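quick one, 66 residues, struct below
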Amino acid sequence: MSGTRIKRWLNMHGKEFNADGILKDEVRQQKLAKGAHPEAIDDYARRLKIKYDQQYLCQITRVQRP
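---
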């Protein structure tokens, strides 16, 4: 079951985010080109990075338990 949560998260968000949960630069540029406000993009990236980190923490916590 190792990595299931992260794999699921990446399947859902992999087109926009790197494997470490950080918004891809080309996605940021596309959003800016479409007129998105930079702070809104940063907020979106930050919120999803937090969700990624929570999934990662759950994953490593489960793996470490005997």
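The mean pLDDT is 87.
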